[in-house]
Design a protein that fits this description.
Helices cover 52% and strands 6% of the residues. The protein is mainly alpha-helical and 71 residues long. The two termini are 18 Å apart.
Length: 71
């Protein structure tokens, strides 16, 4: 996880350097995954949620449910 935090820090720092106004616009880098597809933050979130759903037997709420695990 430390590598991810470091990478996020670098992305934010880069955005701050390039920022020309009061708003900070961060463009997250896209990565090529094993199958040659690009993977962005939304793809990673989707895969994580699906993995948690699989792990919880697709139980959404209650003790041991996906909502609890993702909170």
């Amino acid at each position: 996880m430390a590598g991810n935090v470091r990478e996020l820090n670098n992305v934010i720092e880069h955005a701050m350097i390039l920022s020309k106004d009061k708003s900070l616009r961060v463009h997250l880098p896209r990565r090529v995954v094993g199958n040659g597809r690009y993977s962005g933050l939304q793809d990673m979130e989707r895969r994580h949620i699906l993995a948690v759903l699989e792990k919880t037997g697709w139980r959404l709420s209650g003790d041991g449910g996906a909502a609890e695990a993702l909170a």
